Amino acid sequence: MRKVYTADSIAIAWHFRNVLEQHGIRSVVKNEGLFSVGGEIPINECLPEVWVEQALNAKHAESIIQLIENHEFDEDSEWFCEECGESNFASFDICWNCSD
Ligand SMILES: [Zn+2]
User: Torsions phi, psi of 96, nearest 5?
Assistant: First the structure.
């Protein structure tokens, strides 16, 4: 298991988890239940976290998460990989999916 993201909210954590699953990366959300007992646990341990089940997938997962975060700020700069058809953003020089 490898942590790939600490989210500001459960909704964001689940959003990323769902996207990772769509890319075939098995992942889980941790700490989602700790909000209800806030006060006894340090705040930084209450934030929901996204973990991938296989450490091998961590780098790929982080690339996807970064892609999503960029997407929310800059939707016009994407390009599509000729090899695999995945969308990439202007800040990526090579395809995050197939490294073409
Ligand atoms: Zn590609």
Answer: -70, -25
Question: What are residue 11's phi and psi, to 5 degrees?
Answer: -60, -40
pLDDT, one tens digit per residue, over 44-55 is 567 899 999 999
The runs of H, that is alpha helices, within the chain are 10-22, 58-73
Domain ranges of the chain: 2-74
For ligand 1, an ion, list residues with CB under 5 A.
81, 83-84, 86, 95, 97-98, 100
